[in-house]
Records
---
Amino acid sequence: MTTTRPAWAYTLPAALLLMAPFDILASLAMDIYLPVVPAMPGILNTTPA
């Protein structure tokens, strides 16, 4: 007889530790990207839409 495991076998603290780095990286990427947005038309030699 086989035993069935739940689809997600991790506890809540373990799940938070697994997901936290991705959340931090996404926040950091937005912090780096957003300040350059106003300068993008000039950098790309286009006009603002």
Note: The chain is about 55% helix and 0% strand.
---
Amino acid sequence: MKLAVKTDLLRCILSYILLLTQSVSPKILCHSQWIESNVSSTCFKFFDYKKSFKEAKIFCQYFGAILMIIKYCEQTKILSEELKFKNSTYWVGMRQRPSVSEFFWIDRTSSATTFLSWYVMAPQLPRSILVCTYINEPGIMKGLWAEDSCKTQRGFVCELPAVRTCGAKQFGLRCSGRCSKECGGDGECDITNGNCLHGCLPGFIGDLCNVACANGTYGDKCNFKCSLHCAGFDKKCDFRDGNCTAGCVKGYQEPTCQQPCGRGTYGQGCSRNCSLNCAGRYKYCNSTEGTCLMGCVRGFTGPLCDIVQEEPYDFSVLIVASLCGASTLAVLTISVLIWSREMVFKKQVKSPTGST
């Protein structure tokens, strides 16, 4: 006869009490008529159809389920609560290997390594019989295990994975983990392992989004390189947004230093204006040094068109002026001579013809 392991039963009771006192625990979603088991993150259901162990196993597979595996004492407590209203016995997913005394769960886990819940007076069947495990033997504590020939017709308990949910941005056992602050999208992560569900925020990579971009790279999935126009020897930029840490070299716009200075500006931080003496409608100048690209307007010279240009002496103007002056003088002289002759002529006409 097998003896019940009292320490396991005591541990089961204490663990169940602890489970009930947890302030934060995973929430799971089960299909209609399936019962939640938070501790194993599964859903289970009792079936009263009478089948052998093998037939029950096949039946569960139609639901994508298996015969129930009981590895936690909390599961026994949940089962015992449900079995209060049932009188049938039910197969669960453990059986004895042929020719050995050890029992194994159908996932090939040895029962010796998991929680044990045999009832005190479990019968010992001949080794030649394939033995499987069931629960709810009449007259004993609800939920404890018993063994019988696997060919016996009984009800059975199927189990399938539940859809587990924690609170927002939580994961792990008892929802004790917090999703990384660098998770992208809505910041949610996988409830089991914490992997970010919607990628990472710019500047981070990895399943948990906990690895910053390497030096010289930045942005979404670290796919971008810092600008070659970042100031400083190492051309360093912020791994999130690419803003150059030490500013830009002359001629480029902060903060990313990807674009040259805008029209009409140049120099460090694009803080200086191109000269108004630059030729052309838009006064274009070199974004680095401010050199006027289309030359200077008339009267100015130099790379920045900031030097007043002296006008050269124009002799042609003097010649024209001299000619104009000479012409004017000649006209005046001739006019005076003509006037003088006219005056003399008038005096002669007024004098008496025959006077002596």
Note: The first helix runs from residue 6 to 21.
---
Amino acid sequence: MTTQHDRAQHARTQHDRARTFRTLHRPSSPLALANAWDVASARLIAAAGSAAVATTSAGVAWSLGAADGNEIERERAVDLVARIVAAVDVPVSADIESGFGATAADVGETVTRVIAAGAVGVNIEDAHTDPAVPLRPAAEQAARIA
């Protein structure tokens, strides 16, 4: 019997990895992903048999010497995603904080760069930079990711 990890191991191109990642999303079998914060943790997760690797924005920030919460530069985050993708043979999904920008265009640019770095999925948080408004209103967040 072929396992999810076996299929993921054979995904060599980004397109193949994206298709593999999509097949892992099934209503009857929720996808649980371990979160990597650097290349070494990503390699350990893949070696342990995970069918995919996700990044953690908090762990990435901490590993780069910054606080969690949009405190690192987009370029540093994208660079780390590229290094993680290059280090493993399974699909990688990236947690990109709140998109590293104030506008929908900024978020789109971040997604473009993360995909160009080899990731096949992204998580975009709905945190707001204004402490008085901890979460973005649903309509605003929808516009940012549309």
Note: The longest strand covers residues 92-95.
---
Amino acid sequence: MPFHYSAEEGSIRIEDNHILKARLKDINGNYQDAEIDLNNHIGNENGHFSWDATGFGGSAENVHFSIEGDGSVPVLRAGLQDVEGNYQERDLNLAERIENNNGTFYYSTIPRPYIYLVSAANVDSRLSSSNRISLKRGILRGDSIHVPAFHNLSST
């Protein structure tokens, strides 16, 4: 689940230009103090945020977090230094990769649209007996993904 939907109102913040902190709900509905070092997952490539990289905070200024727009998007904003030494104002939707896993932050190496695709396949009763789906869109187009056995949780 995207972390910001289960965070205590007003608890999400950035500290030291790279630590994301919040109080996140666990499976029992209790709020837990959580933090994740974004420097371990986000880099700066010539003035642009880059997932699956490291150390953006070392070349960033005015780092801040906000929930924006009608879709309540969790946005990280910062001025990122490019190779010429100029700072470029950039933003990043943290919900693309940062999730809440039982009251703790979790970084997903798979972009969110692909997670939804596989999740949808899990509940699709038309899965073949081989438990494989073929991707028809996106950067993984043409690839086949194995879907682990799934038990129908809706039946009693």
Note: The CA atoms of residues 106 and 125 lie 29 Å apart.
